[in-house]
Every structure is written in C-alpha cells, then in structure tokens.
Design a protein that fits this description.
Elements (H helix, E strand, L loop, with lengths): L19 E9 L3 H11 L3 E2 L14 H24 L14 H51 L1 H10 L17 E3 L6 E10 L3 H11 L5 E6 L12 E8 L2 H13 L3 E3 L5 H57 L3 E2 L5 E9 L3 H14 L7 E5 L16 H10 L10 H16 L2 H16 L1 H5 L5 H8 L1 H18 L15 E3 L12 E3 L18 H34 L3 H32 L5 H10 L14 H20 L1 H18 L6 H11 L9 H25 L2 H25 L4 H39 L25
Antiparallel strand pairs: 1-9, 1-10, 2-9, 3-4, 4-6, 4-7, 5-6, 8-9, 11-12
Helix pairs in contact: 1-7, 1-8, 2-3, 2-7, 3-4, 3-7, 5-6, 10-14, 10-22, 10-23, 11-14, 15-16, 15-22, 16-18, 16-19, 16-21, 19-21, 22-23
Keywords: Coiled coil, Hydrogen ion transport, Ion transport, Membrane, Transmembrane, Transmembrane helix, Transport
Membrane topology: Multi-pass membrane protein
Function: Essential component of the vacuolar proton pump (V-ATPase), a multimeric enzyme that catalyzes the translocation of protons across the membranes. Required for assembly and activity of the V-ATPase.
Amino acid sequence: MGEVRGGCCPPMYLFRSEPMQLVQLIFPIESAHLTVSYLGDVGLLQFKDLNVEKSPFQRTYAAQIKKCGEMARKLRYFKEQMLKAGFCPKKSTAQVDINLDDLEVRLGELEAELVEINANSEKLQRAHNELVEYKLVLEKAGEFFHVAHSSATEVQREYESRQITEESLDTPLLLEQEMLTDSSKQVKLGFITGLVPREKSMAFERIIFRATRGNVFIRHAVVEDPVTDPVSGEKNVFVVFYSGEKAKNKILKICEAFGANRYPFSEDLGKQAQMITEVSGRLSELKTTIDVGLLQRNSLLQTIGDQFEQWDLWVRKEKSVYHTLNMLSLDVTKKCLVGEGWSPSFATKQIQHALERAAFDSNSQVGAIFQVLQTKELPPTYFQTNKFTSPFQEIVDAYGVAKYQEANPTVYTIITFPFLFAVMFGDWGHGICLLLATLFLIARERKYSSQKLGDIMEMMFAGRYCILMMALFSIFTGLIYNEFFSVPFELFAPSAYACRDLSCRDATTVGLIKARPTYPFGVDPAWHGSRSELPFLNSLKMKMSILLGVAQMNLGIMLSYYNAKFFGNGINTWFQFVPQIIFLNSLFGYLSILILVKWCTGSQADLYHTMIYMFLSPTDELGENQLFVGQKTLQLVLLLLALVAVPWMLLPKPFLLKKQHQDRHRGQSYTPLRSTEESLQLESNHGLHGHEEFEFSEVFVHQLIHTIEFVLGSVSNTASYLRLWALSLAHSELASVFYDKLLMLAWGYNNVVILIVGIFIFICATVGVLLVMETLSAFLHALRLHWVEFQNKFYEGDGYKFYPFSFTLIGDEDE
C-alpha cells in the first residue's frame, strides 16, 4: 500500500479501498521510453504482463536490460571499493540527462582503470611484504650465524651426540653456497632459511624431525613486529641445518606443504649487511610507489563517488523502465506498443497528462491513446496510508489483503488494537517508559528514516506511531487500575474508605468503612494491599473482558452487514447477518446486560448459576439470582431465538444460491441470435460464470461448516477474550512482586550498597520482563484477538495488493 506522492489526490479513504479501473494505453515506439518514464514519476499505474508466454530472452528489450544489469554490476563493484577505502557516495539532487551508451562506455573505462590500479597495487604490496619478510629473515638468521661462528663446536657436539658420520649417510655430503664448516671435522652442514606460519611452527618442526630421523638442527625466532599475511597469518623465522641431499629434498617438500617461504642467505657477515642495505633501499622505493598508486586510486574513487548516487539511481530507473516495456505487446504494425494496467480512478487526469507530456517532449507525430476497459477481473486493493496509519494497515495485511472494496478493519484497529493491548499492559508508570522510548524514535524520525537499521530496530521504528498509541492507552488504563509500577496513588481524590481498626490492612472489606464520596476515577487505592484485592480485581477484570469481547464481536458482525449491503448481497444480510447477531446477543449479549445490571444494582446474584441453568432448567424459578422483573420470560425468549437462529443460518442460504444459479442459466438458455461481436462480448462478460457447475453438496457442506464454526466460535471466542483478564493480572502481580521483593526488601536493610544493588536489579527486571517480554506478549495476544475473534466475523482477506510502477520505490529494492 503506502503513501501517494504527488498532488491532485482526493482525501484519504481507509474504510473502502480506492475505486480502480483497468486502462489500456497505446503509444508509438519512438515515445515509449519517455512515456513509461513519466508514468513511473506519477507512480499510480500497475502494468499487466501481456507477454507471459515469452521467456525473458525473447522479449523486445532483453538486450537493454542485460546492458543495465552489467552497468549495475560495475556500480556495485565501485561501491565495494569505495566502502573499503572509507569513501561515502555523495548525495546528489541535480538532474542531468544521461545517455545509456555514453554511460556504459564511461563506466567501462572507469572499471578498467580501477581494476588495473588495484592489480598493480596488489602486485606492489605483495613484493613489499616479501621484502619485509626477507629483511626479517636476514636480521634474525644473522643472529643465529653470529652465535654459530662464535661457538661452532656446539653444533658439532650435537651432531656427534647423535652419532652422525659421513659413512652413515645415504649419499655423499655436498657443499652449497650456504655452509657451516668445522675445520676439526669433515661433517659439512647445509641450511635453509625462511618464514613459517606461527600456528604451524611446532607441527613443522615435528614433521621435519621425524622425516629426517632427527638428523637436523632447527632454530626458530619469534618476530617481534610480525608480518601478517592474508592467508597464512603471523609467521616465525626459522633456520634448518641439515646434512645430505636427501635430507634437503625432504625439507624442501615439507616447506612447500606448510606454506613456508624460503629466502637466500649468506653466512658471510659482510654480504649479510650488504643484502640488508639493498633490501632497505628497495623497500623505500616500493613504499613511495605504493603511496603514489594509493593517491591515484583515491582520486579515482573520489571522482566516482561524486556522481555515484546519480548514476546508480539512473541505472535503476532505466532497468525498471525496460522491464516495464517488456510487459507491453507490439501492435500488428510493429510501430506501436499496447499496454494494460490498473490505476485508481482519481489518477486518470495525471496519467493522461503524463502521456501528453511524453508525446510532446519526444516530438512524436502521433499522440497516445488512453481508454478504460470493462472487465470482470477482480481489481487490486489500494489504500492510501501515511506514516501513522501504515503500521496498522500492515498488521491487517499480515493476516490477509482485503478483497477489493471490502470493509477495512484498519479503521477500527487504529483504536481497538492499542486499547486491548493497554487492557493487558495497564500501568501508567510502564506506559510512561514506553511513551518516552517512542518519543525518542519520533524525535529522531528524520535521521533514522535515511539510515540502515537492524531488523528489530527497523520494526520498532516502522511501528513507532502504533507503539505511541499503545503507550498512551497504557497510561489511560493504568490510571483506571490505579497502578504506578504496582503502587496506588490518590491522584484524583482521597480514598472513599477508612479503616475500622488498626488491623485494617490484614482484614477483608468488613474492616473498611465508607467515610468519603466514591473515588471519582478508576480503582480506589484502598483496595490495593487488602486481603480482598485479588477477588475484587479478578471479578472486575473478568467481567470487563467479557464486555469488551462481546462489543468487538458485535462490531465485526455489523461490518459483515455493511459488506453485504455494499455488494448488494441480500442473502448474506438476511441469512447470515441477522441470525448471527441474534444468536450472539441472545446468549452473550444477555450475559453482558446481566453484568451491567449487577454492577448498577449491587446485587449478589450468581451469574454463573444463572447462565448454566438458563440451558439446563430454563423453566425453573431464579430465586435470589433474579436481577429484574420478567427475567425468566426474557431468558426463555432468548433461548428460543438462539435455537431458531441455528437452522436459519444453515438451511435457507444453500437453496437460495441454487435457485439463483438456475435462474441465471435459465435466462441464457433461449436468447435471440447475435452478431459475432455481441457473442464475443457476452462470452467475455460471462466467461467466469457461464460455464461454472453448481455443486449443491459442496455449498451445503461449506455452509454447515460455517454454521458450526460460528456457533462454537461464539463460545470459544468469548472465552478467548478472558486473556485480557489473565494478562492484566499477570502483569500486575509481576510488577507487585518486583516492587515488594526487590525494591522494598533492599530498602529495608538500611544499607547503601544493598539498596543500590536492589535498585539495579529492580530496573533490570522491570525493563527486561515487564517492558520487553510483557510488551511482546500483550502485543501478540492483542494481535490474535483481532485476527481471529474480530476479523473472522466479516473479513475475507483474499485480495491482492496494488503494486504500481513507481520510481519512488526503486531506492528500497535490492538489485
């Protein structure tokens, strides 16, 4: 649904959906693109797909859609690169004419340039990282060899301790460029230096040790300023001393398996210093080159960011325009496009104006044709909503979209939903907390509406005005219950009751005497804390729940009458509405009257006994349960009406529907001959009904189910409204427990620390349980009462939404 943007709109109608019309548009191909674009600006026409039999690749504008899709991909790539670089696209409101082909070339050039810069940057960065690693290897490995030259005999002793001799090796020892030589022995050691991932270093050492049977000497060094590799992570410098070609080959394979990077190294200290100097110089040059490339990349991204929003919006619009053009059919002359779609009746002038403007701006020699078509097809449902009514409409639509011009429950839900929520949540302290949170969202409405919020926050922000109404009604019902975080206050006047003696708090109502006028608004604070508080509030809230439930169910049945009257369905009026209203009020309407009479008269009559024996022994005397004269006779009449209403609801409607069907077909059996055009028109008008078969058994069974459902539902739905009493009682008792057992208990210790801890736990319990969990619970129960108990009395909800082609909706769509 949503808001209508633009002028010349009629006042908002929410009870019935907007009158819709099926229109046909015919316009020349040369003005087609501009015409659809202008209609997208109007946003009040839902096009029908006239090419359903064609695949997307067979349609006229498939090539243009593919081109727009490729440009959208490039724009997504640009956006990813800008976000990585910390750039935000600038908001642009300037309207600039852009050519599709020119933009495609421009985006292609920018993408190629950016890809090349990124590739060069990655290559340079990789070389820079390798040089940094090489420098670390030179520094750390140099420390090993400095120690080795100062005490070369330690290495030799370790090999001697392992009894390694030249004769025990599989192949002769080979001298390499990097060797450690001990003049006292003929054992010659080669070495391999490099970097290994830190988390794999222990496993790397164990595997080498086992593969060479311990005939190696390994040294590791933890790098103080570790080099972070995107794949391997932090690394350690290692040096492996080995003896023999076979051992060398095994070590090289293990290095490859562990992703270890090997670097050349010289044992000569002079050459080491020279290599470090050379590597440092190359690092400085690479750093300068990388910085220049980064500046060039940032400059390119800044250029893209200045026009990104404008390009992105334009590509989205173009893609949606071509998608819409693919829904139109080509005229037989191949020179015109024909389109059909639904639009509100009030939008006729706006659409015609858009067509005329498109024909003028495109210099077309032929104007567009606009005509309204007659159809039996069910139109889409369109309600004009605003930011206040939208969340309530969404609540109703979640159950089912209203059938075209069916009575919309949203009109009543705006009041009844927050009110029933408040009946269960009633506490004016909690209501104020809810109100403050909602006012915060409303105050930051402009900021949050343009931001991407989380899922939960998005739902709360979208329903901020619904929550506002819930908070206001919660304050109202909280004042009626006289509860502020479960604490009563004498807000409007002193209590009407005074204590008879000192033990009044522990006594029943006998311990209270009426000393002042009746408390003017809500529950008298004297009830709170007395032994009779729970029985009194239980009785009050239970009876109030029944009254509210019966009133809302009667409202639902009345709306079914307005639906039947609006659609001219006399059968539903006389054989559905009348028996339903009689049945419901003969039983539960009568119970509501008894509750009101008992409240007004102060009678001690037992209403449970009265209602039960109204069915079991309707002719017995009522005795002390009689509330007024003639009550017994009235009960007999109401019971008889309820019994009559059941067959009244069940039997006549199927037979009348059968008679209607027979009369309709009897009128079509003998008709004068018509021309071909008249025959086609008759077939199109009655195609939906002319060949339907009337299955009386199916209709009768459906009516039987509907009757049983209503009769049993009248009882179960009335009982379901008792959840108002149960949830209200639970909320009140939880608030009382938190107040007495947390706040007041901590206050009684006369200890500042315990008091602070108690207040903290009380706040957490109040927010977590009462303001979050109880709010959600009451919301869900109010939702169920509206969906099941209220809407099933009249609401079919089998329509479909009006989704116009509108550019204002493009920004919310994900490509």
